[in-house]
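Here is one chain, start to finish.
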Amino acid sequence: METTTNILLDGKAIAAKIQQEISATITELQPQIGRSPGLAVLMVGDNPASAAYVRGKERACAKVGIASFGKHFPTAITQAELSFEIANLNEDHRVDGILVQLPLPSHLDAPSLLQQIVPDKDADGLHPFNLGRLVRGEKGLRSCTPAGIMRLLQEYQIPLRGKQVVMVGRSILVGKPMALMLLEADATVTIAHSRSQNLKTITADADILITAVGRTSVITSDMVKPGAVVVDVGMNRVTDANGNSQLVGDVDFDSVKRVAEFITPVPGGVGPMTVAMLLQNTVISYSQNLKTL
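Its structure:
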């Protein structure tokens, strides 16, 4: 049975709304704090996708009034050199948020570098201290992509309490913090992954299905409960027979949209929300300066 109504979860529009809120907050706080908030995005190497993400983040910063202190390092930078840069940013009073753009070259130890960021400047919400706060249900900086999904569901007034939610993917970036946030909202959560048996049976029971696998067409229409909410975190670049490339998600969008009641597009769904939450985390850190005045 296919649904006759289908609503796109428009992350681009909601992100624009959040950016307006952030801009208004900065305008209110700036006279009291005496400066603009600052975000430092550190990028290593020449990964084209990473470079595009960083440019997008810097444009978003400029739009809302956040100063950018980002740096681009050569691939050959050492662990010690990058650690030194992070230590300097930790001490820089102009910088409220620090983000290390992933993935890093293989010779660098990403977890160690992320742990060196002061937790209150952890704009990506990935420091063990902030993840611990999430586990304990305490206030703190939240992982950007899961926090963006929660806000997107809230904006479309999609209830979570008591709902069956399936999270396909178990990464520290999305799957694990997403499950914790959903549990905090009283959802019943199942985490599935690449080694789950009978994935179709698991996903077909979901009122809300979230996928962050990084492979095209992992989710097809026969795996989705009619009337479900489908959130696609995947960002995969594919090339057609004519050599034209495009971004697609993990979900077979054209078939699933005929079954789901709500669905995120790719691009324009989760991606803009992730950037909006990065800005929000930076401003949350920035607002803490009021307590020291």
